[in-house]
């Protein structure tokens, strides 16, 4: 009996001890959870995903357009609150969920071509605000969007280090400035400024979750003050919003605060993404990490010398078979590296500038080359250009003792690979960001006129120009990741005469014969555009005013051209003559000094 009693007491004691251990363990886990900013962030993120899913479910069962729009707006707001994290940790799904409402073409090679109808929030927005609302199709799209978010939720496990947090905040600051406030992903509602407020609130929440990281608590106060001011300023009308002042006085200030923050947190970056880790302006030659755009451009102490060597080769006619043409024959420095012709003799396309060419992921108007080195090969092989080959080019270089000495010193050897790299390195040095506009937005001078500032604001707002020509390069490579250079079908005519036909050049179609890519061309930079006339891939327009009128009237559609896959909205932009003049005046401020 005693032994039974003793055993019962021992059992009770052990049970009590086990309960105490479990209780202490649970409390310790709870304390650890509550003190771990990444776990807190993950919990908040998952909660946001669930909220977004809930509103999409409401959209699925909406009985009419009014209910559908209400559910959509709530879902979209929840999605925008997720954007800073989702766009960083899951780029592919973010892209799917926020894709523009145009046919998605993926061309890996001639044997791997995928053509998909888009899904996601932009598609839903255009459907809901269409004159003929198709609720059944809307519900199908809402379901596909919801299912993708459920997949994201199921697989969410944030593994963020301090440098990741800095990167995702920097990306979102840039995303708002370069695509958010332009209406890029709110094509119908033009709700971009409100959505930017939501994104900034998430940035603020993230910084406050990581508040314990700050040694300098004044930085936290500075962030909260700056974000509060930013949100207040963003509470504005889409068409009249002063984007120039916003970027100059707030975006760049936030980038400086971020550099202070990473210093305060003692962040060590393992590498750089598209943006340099210490960049403090979106419009500077210190903004971009060139290595991100090309693995062959490893920065070393000889890069300047390699670029100088490349410049000599760029201007050397002896590299062509005829010894009458060099790279500089078509890419004239004084014309911002173009040639001033509609098309160069024996060529079918207008010569594009090579300035800022390094800051993109595809080359030629049809995007057929994936690197500058690859582009150079095409020029060398073209019978109407260098009409040569890599072996002949190499032999020409070997005949020049100065070249031989330079290559041996800078590369240790000479082959076509090193020759192409030297020329490409020179081209990669042509990103000066020292135009009148750059100097002003970086507060180095105050010389922009009211018309020029208004032109920038129209370009990035009412004119919708920046939804294809993304700042700061003003080309089609999409920020902040800069992994995709967009192709567009805008309906360029063959002439400026009455009742023109579409330009016969099939563009991207000629690369893989994808019929949905007929008449598609890469979006070029408009930097130095005043010096690069005539315009378009066929040089059909001689003045910027002509170009603006073409866009203002709805591109090819406005000219009466029936193009099924035109990506340029066919509706008029309703720009007045004075607004067109302002946009032209702004574009002229992009001339490099």
Nutshell version of this structure?
This protein is mainly alpha-helical and 593 residues long. The chain is built from 23 helices and 4 strands. The radius of gyration is 28 Å and the shape is globular.
Question: Can you lay out the helices and strands and say which pair or pack?
Answer:
Blueprint: H1 2-35, H2 37-60, H3 65-89, H4 91-97, E1 104-109, E2 112-116, H5 121-128, H6 135-154, H7 162-178, H8 192-209, H9 217-234, H10 243-264, H11 290-293, H12 303-314, H13 327-330, H14 372-381, H15 390-398, H16 401-410, H17 416-427, H18 436-441, H19 450-459, E3 487-488, H20 509-512, E4 521-522, H21 544-552, H22 555-558, H23 577-587
Antiparallel strand pairs: 1-2, 3-4
Helix pairs in contact: 2-3, 2-6, 3-4, 3-5, 3-7, 3-8, 5-6, 7-8, 7-10, 8-9, 9-10, 12-17, 14-17, 19-23, 21-23
Structural features, described:
With about 600 residues, this protein is mainly alpha-helical. It folds into five domains: about 35 residues; about 120 residues, no CATH class; about 120 residues; about 130 residues, Cytochrome Bc1 Complex, Chain D, domain 2 (Orthogonal Bundle), CATH 1.10.760.10; about 150 residues, Orthogonal Bundle (Cytochrome Bc1 Complex, Chain D, domain 2), CATH 1.10.760.10. Helices cover about 50% and strands about 5% of the residues. The chain contains 23 helices and four strands. The strands form two sheets. A two-stranded antiparallel ribbon has the order 1-2. It has a two-stranded antiparallel sheet with strand order 3-4. β1 and β2 form a beta hairpin. The longest helix is centred in the N-terminal third of the chain and has 34 residues. The chain is globular, with a radius of gyration of 28 Å. The termini are far apart.
